[in-house]
Every structure is written in structure tokens, then in C-alpha cells.
Amino acid sequence: MKKIAVIGSGTMGNGIAHAFAQNGFPVSLIDISEEALQKALGTIAKNLDRIVAKGNLTEEQKAHTLRNITTYTSLQEGVQEADLVVEAATENVDLKLKIFRDLSTFAKPEAILASNTSSISITKIASVTERPANVIGMHFMNPVPVMKLVEVIRGYSTSDEVTRQVVEITELLGKIPAEANDYPGFVANRILMPMINEAIYSLFEGVAGVEEIDTIMKLGMAHPMGPLQLADFIGLDVCLSILNVLHEGFGNPKYAPCPLLVNMVQAGHKGVKSGQGFYTWTHGSKELIVADRFKKK
User: Fold this and answer.
1) Residues 173 and 201 in one domain
2) Which of 18, 139, 247, 269 is catalytic?
3) Considering its fold, how many domains does the chain have in total?
4) I want to staple 159 with a disulfide (CB 3.0 to 4.6 A). Which of 121, 128, 133, 223 is the partner?
5) Is 18 marked active-site?
């Protein structure tokens, strides 16, 4: 695989494009918004500056990485020469199915079509294409340039050869692939999201406050950040979407989203991306302030 296309220039998309470009792959970064594409390039440049400042990258390597990325607002133009397409659009099943229908037409017949979905069935996504054997999940972790894990998800029809190639290219990125089969939430979110949901229930039921819950899990369980801070970081809307997939897929009430999470998302409190979640995220600062409504009276 020589040419990569990444669909979606948000947090995950620009991170995936960054990882491939820094490792020498020509990347087509695709989004319907030119403004979003320019913002993504700015984010990638800032992240590269941090790596340069740590002495892990030269200015020349930074410039080469940025030259490896070409932006497109046309899906057809962006994917037509790609050997591997990685879809990193919003976690919305209808949107993803539309994209993969289009990819079945626009991408080369031999191209591998991967989705960065965190919970949506790869088998379902593959079913709308004319090449289900070439469809696979590549679930990168956020922040992509830093996190080593890539969850590689085989759909029902994914071929052994496609899996082998995706494992190989994951390793070429300096990351560690871990294979999983296609069941709701795969492995990472099937385990993580119920924990986050239980932490939200603990807050909802008045067991403890935001800081107390996060402190207990950080200090008692050696987690790098507490589950409520992590939920803000992932995006409360994304957490809700994944829990809904788990609940629908397994039909088990233990996956039902906490009413507090539902209300927060409906109110537009989505965590870091909106500036308000379980914490208030001040612009340009890493300081976390517990949202007023959750502070002890």
C-alpha cells in the first residue's frame, strides 16, 4: 500500500493523516469543508511543533510530513488513487453507510476500505459495498499521534489477506495492532463504556462528586485519568452513541445510558469539544474546573 486517503478532518481524521504522513505515506485528507481542512492542517502543524520541541523530529521532517498531505473537498477525487481508505467521519451509522456506498463506486476495486468507527458493525458497513472482503475496522485511539494501539476489527467477510495487510501497515506506523471480531463495541468500548456509564450513574445517584469519582479511579486503580474526565475527552455525544449501539446490539439493560448522560448531550454539554461537560474546559488551558452544577453544595 502506497497511497492513503483519510475521510474526515476532525480530531481523529487529522490525527490519522498525521500518523501516516509522518511515516512517509502520501495522504489525501478529505472533508466537505475547506475551512475544516485548513483547521486540520493547522492542528497537524502544531502537533508536529510539539514533537520538534521534544527533539524527536527535525524541522525538515516536519516540512516533509506536511508536504505529504493533500486536501480535497471531493470524495471521488480524493480516493480515486488510494490503496487504503480510512473513514474517520462522525460516529453516525447513516453517514458511514453513505460514505461506503460511494467508496464502492469511487475507490479502486482492489483498495482496502477501513473504518475508524468505535462501535458500529464492520459487517453492516461492508454489506453496502460490492467488496465486503476488502472492508475492515481500524480503530485508532485518541490522540492518534501518541497512542500506540490500533484495534483491527474483522467483519464477517473480511479476508485474511486484507487483515494481514492492515496489521502490517499498522506496524509500519510504529503502532501495535490488536485483532478483534465484529461484535458491538468490539473490545475497547465494550469494556470501557460500561465503566464510564457506571461512573456517571454514581454521580447521578449521589454516591460521590465528580472529583471524588475520578480521584478514586486514578489513585485506587492506577488509571491515568478518571472516567468522567475521560468521557469529556472522548465526547459525551460519542459515549452516548456507543452505549446506544451496545444496548441495541446486546439487548441487555446493563448497557442502557444513564439519564444524566442523555440530558447532558441533549443540552449540548459534550465535554471538551463544547467547553462544558463534567468539567468546564477553559479555552487554551488544561485547567479543569468542575462544572458548577456538580459542585458540592
Assistant:
1) no
2) 139
3) 2
4) 133
5) no
Q: Tell me the chain's radius of gyration from C-alpha atoms.
A: 19
Last residue in a domain, options 153, 181, 209: 181
Residue 193 shares a structural domain with residue 265: yes
105-114 pLDDT per residue, tens: 999 999 999 9
Catalytic-labelled residue, pool 68, 118, 157, 197: 118
Q: Specify whether 151 is catalytic.
A: yes
Q: What is the pTM (predicted TM-score) of this model?
A: 0.91
Taking only the tens place, the pLDDT of each residue in 145-187 is: 999 999 999 999 999 999 999 999 999 999 999 999 999 999 9
The residue from 47, 157, 189, 197 that is catalytic is: 189
What residues make up the domain containing 264?
Answer: 188-294
Let me know if 14 is a catalytic residue.
no
Among residues 151, 157, 202, 241, the one annotated as catalytic is 151
Q: Are residues 119 and 19 in the same domain?
A: yes
Q: Is 205 a catalytic residue?
A: no
- Residues in the chain with pLDDT < 70? 283-286, 297
